[in-house]
Amino acid sequence: MGTLWTVYREGVRCAEMAMVCLTDFEEYAREHLSKATWDYYAAGADECCTRDDNLLAYKRIRLRPRILRDVSISDTRTTVQGTEISFPVGIAPTAFHCLAWHEGEMATARATEAVNTCYITSTYSTCSVEEIVAAAPNGYRWFQLYVYRNRKVSEQIVHRVEALGYKALVLTVDVPYTGKRRNDIRNQFKLPPHLKVKNFDGVFEQASVGAVPEHVCLRPSLQENAGPEEYGIPANTLDPSISWKDVYWLQSLTRLPIIIKGILTKEDAELAVEHGVQGIIVSNHGGRQLDGGPATIDALSEIVDTVQGRIEVYLDGGIRTGSDVLKAVALGAKCVFIGRPAVWGLAYKGEEGVREVLQILNDEFRLSMALAGCRNVAEINRNLIQFSKL
Questions:
Q1: What number of CA atoms fall less than 13 Å from residue 220's CA on the CB side?
Q2: Which of 29, 77, 92, 299 could bridge to 294 as Cys pair (CB 3.0-4.6 Å)?
Q3: For residues 5 and 282, what is the distance between their CA atoms, to the nearest angstrom?
């Protein structure tokens, strides 16, 4: 990519930096976002071991490339839930995109529409589900959902997104309480006054129980003492009593496919299949929930082996290069989703920045595929992975 940004040190123009890989966008975002916003997006739980291991785990995996395979023509297309996308990378649900770019999730939606891939919209968006659809009417979208103590709130948003043409529900199941993110607590992170969680504008005004959003910094022990409002949402709204029976309840509300996000073990993968869901996202919430859990790429194989093709398995966490995408697909992921890199793209140049992040990943994936001897996604399989000898 030929994009450049000017690097300044102590007010002096030093160099034009080309945006060549995803870490270039990370560096730009780190330099240009406020400290509190950068810390919020970067945060992991506790000591950030799982957050960091999501990335390091890919570096431990080695590929077994095949040669002389005629890779003069390559095809990166695949399908998710029966819909064709341009390559097996989508946008994971992350909150508060307006913190990174003034158009927020509307810019993200336009970028994913332009690249023809899947955008999982977060419940905690700073644009409403209606605004996102209006910005990119032909985009392929899923909606990420939490279950609330007040089930009517969940029910209403499900009906809204189904009517708007969202194609699946992604139920996040790893947040009975919010993980402890130390820098958010130190920074006393909160949304600035001009931003709000748009999907719930006015919804909770009469509520007497409150809410803690997806990425809020409060520890469980502090939640009882939280004020009546946090980030535009009343405190203690997420329901820690959520269980497998709520999957049946959700199925009773909608005909949309249900995909469970936050599974890390074969036991829960089997239960997901038994409860009739249509997909699993292997996810540890970007290392923001339980610290000390597995890297998602390390958890993938046992889940794929258990599911045995009965439903689709996806993955998020730690994807930074096209080679990472190739490794995840080789280990059985139908598609992977990126969270933080999309936000870095937004911080760089809004819609155009997200498009560039996706395009770089697509180009790198196509190159890695060819160098490994694969002409299309169907040719990618576990034979590409070097399993260490014990």
A1: 10
A2: 299
A3: 35
203 SS3 class: coil
**Residue 251 phi, psi dihedral angles, 5° rounding:** -65, -30
Question: Is-above-0.90 flag for pTM?
Answer: yes
Task: Judge contact between 125 and 97, C-beta under 8 A.
Answer: yes
Q: pLDDT tens, 227-279?
A: 444 545 677 888 999 999 999 999 999 999 999 999 999 999 999 999 999 99
- CA dist 128 and 148 (Å) reads 18
pLDDT in tens, 57-110: 999 999 999 999 999 999 999 999 999 999 999 999 999 999 999 999 999 999
Which residues 6+ apart lie within 8 Å of 310 measured at CB?
Answer: 273
Distance of alpha carbon 262 from alpha carbon 72, whole angstroms = 38
Q: Per this entry, what is the length of the chain?
A: 390
Residue of 97, 102, 194, 285 marked active site: 285
Largest CA distance in the chain: 67
**Residue 240 phi, psi dihedral angles, 5° rounding:** -75, -5
Which residue, among 92, 95, 131, 79, has the nearest Cα to 110 in the 3D structure? Answer: 131
At CA 29, angle to CA 357 and CA 27, rounded to 5? 85
Q: How far apart are CA 331 and CA 319, in angstroms?
A: 14
Residue 156: both structure tokens together: 């209403």
Alpha-carbon span 162 to 227, nearest angstrom: 33
Residue type at 279 in one-letter notation: G
Which residue do the tokens 């890199």 mark?
341
Contact 287/54 with Cβ under 8 angstroms? yes
CA 367 to the chain's CA centroid: 24
State the Cα–Cα distance between residues 163 and 387, nearest whole angstrom.
46
Distance of alpha carbon 134 from alpha carbon 119, whole angstroms: 14
Which residues lie closer than 8 Å to 388 by C-beta, 6 or more apart?
Answer: none
Q: Cβ atoms within 10 A of the Cβ of 267, count?
A: 12
Do residues 121 and 105 make contact, with C-beta atoms less than 8 angstroms apart? yes
Residue at 313: amino acid letter: V
